[in-house]
Amino acid sequence: MSHALNIAAANVNAPRIDESTPHALPSLAGMGRAQLREAALACGVEERKAKMRANQLFGWIYHYGSTSFDEMTNIDKETRARLAAHYTLDRPRILERLVSTDGTRKYLIELAPGVECETVFIPDVARSGALCVSSQVGCTLNCTFCHTGTQALVRNLTAAEIVAQVMIARDDLAEWPSSNDDRKVTNIVFMGMGEPLYNLDHVSDSIDTISDPEGMAIGRRRITVSTSGVVPKIAELGTRTNTMLAISLHATNDALRDELVPLNKKYPLKALMDAIRAYPGLNNSRRITFEYVMLKGVNDSLAEARALVKLLKGVPAKINLIPFNPWPNSPYECSDWPQIVAFADLVNKAGYASPIRTPRGRDIFAACGQLRSESKKVKASELKKQRLAEQAAAGQ
Ligand code: SAH
Ligand code: SF4
Fold first, then answer.
1. Is the pLDDT of residue 4 over 70?
2. At what angle do helices 337-349 and 302-311 cross, to 10 degrees?
3. How confident is the model at residue 376 (pLDDT cuts 50, 70, 90)?
4. Which domains does the chain have, with CATH numbers?
């Protein structure tokens, strides 16, 4: 029996877009400083004041979590009125909000009509809590153990859509202003839907906003980006974002990794390990996290544990062993618990921290690799048709 409590309709603090309005105004929530400056200019703020106004807006939106322009008391009334006539501070709509018996929260978020992503808040890891954000709707890669991999890529998320996921969680957890001492969302992990390094520009912009000390101020060392191994983008991730790196490894030889993470055929282990060794800022205080999903009879033998130790020799690393989380018709089984423990012990004795990740939010289907939305890829020709129909309806 599931104890999940679906209270989607209740207690969602975020403002909602009025669906009766055919042309909703764009929202400033999620925009970075440069976009806020453009927005200020676009609604008549003088060029010489635009930067100041953008900074003020930035503070209200990301420090205070403002949902109304009225409270922005350091901005004159007339400018506030103009801003309100052109923009909102709405967050994307929460379609479903599920709370697990273990406190994990999962949000199904509507980014645009028919475009949905999932975001998961996991309490009590690291100092306090991690928010697992999505960078794409669907994924182009087809890792055989991952539910998201069975969904075609719908599209990359914009930076604003990534930032909005953090805002939605903070609205729900009532943790504005950002200076609040007992913050719950202390860490961000890009381990939701999608491959972040295939959307690096937007991921990088979103990290600039999320980590900005005058806003939500989640430090770059508390932000982890997980990749399945997009080798040519790994160094760029480091230089542009200065965040922590996680690698979804899952196998220690090319034959098996080719099967589990098909991207390995393009970027095999040797190339991946070279890129990891060259990751900017790598040292013992900035270890790389390796994720290793435990698949019964597939990659969980002690010989593989030894091969893992050998492969990672000389790399400051932590190995997260993830018990496989099943999904409907998934082709694997999770390793038996004693086997996971024996694997962890061997790796640990070789000098690597090797925590076994406790599955969280299983009752609400929120664990690693279980995220998948119903959004479907729509052909460009279909989109055009839809747009023309909307324009025709609006003109009537
Ligand atoms: N695309 C990125 C980030 C998202 S996946 C990546 O692959 O790294 C986040 C983590 O969950 C990855 O390590 C992924 O391999 C793992 N994962 C995927 N499906 C899983 C499953 N069914 N059970 C356990 N972990 C899974
Ligand atoms: Fe995509 Fe990551 Fe899932 Fe692989 S594990 S299919 S890269 S989301």
1. no
2. 30
3. confident
4. 25-90 (1.10.150.530), 93-364 (3.20.20.70)
